[in-house]
Recover the amino acids of this structure.
């Protein structure tokens, strides 16, 4: 089970659009922050600096590493992996095709947002304890209730 800090949610379309507007500079920040948050959460993975270096040197590798680490976060919490390393195939070859690159971003950032949501509200995942009838109404039980 992951016990580190919960990462920041980012709007899927914000990530895509601001990346285009900044000619990819925002994606460098996104890669650093995403990999750093996942490493802090689990203690595993490349982390921000090494993840950014991998992205800069051999970015196709990161297309597989990021969803793989994200899937492992889900698996570490006993959940089904929504993305795996194979998700990186959406960016092959090198993200030059726009639609597959958008699909990759939607799958990865969407799964990451869901993970952060679930991690931030662990009580919602726990089963509710039964509430006695008198606690619901605020009244004391009468002799006819027993």
């Amino acid at each position: 089970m992951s016990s580190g800090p919960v990462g920041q949610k980012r709007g899927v379309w914000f990530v895509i659009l601001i990346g285009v507007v900044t000619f990819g500079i925002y994606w460098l920040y996104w890669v650093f922050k995403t990999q750093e948050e996942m490493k802090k959460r689990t203690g595993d993975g490349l982390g921000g600096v090494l993840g950014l270096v991998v992205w800069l040197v051999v970015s196709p590798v990161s297309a597989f590493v990021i969803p793989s680490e994200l899937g492992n976060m889900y698996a570490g919490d006993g959940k089904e992996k929504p993305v795996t390393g194979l998700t990186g195939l959406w960016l092959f070859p090198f993200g030059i095709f726009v639609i597959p690159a958008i699909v990759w971003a939607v799958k990865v950032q969407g799964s990451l947002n869901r993970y952060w949501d679930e991690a931030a509200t662990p009580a919602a995942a726990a089963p509710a304890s039964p509430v006695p009838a008198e606690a619901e109404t605020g009244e004391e039980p009468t002799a006819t209730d027993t």
Remarks:
- The chain has six helices and no strands.
- The chain has a mean pLDDT of 84.
- Residues 12-118 form one domain.
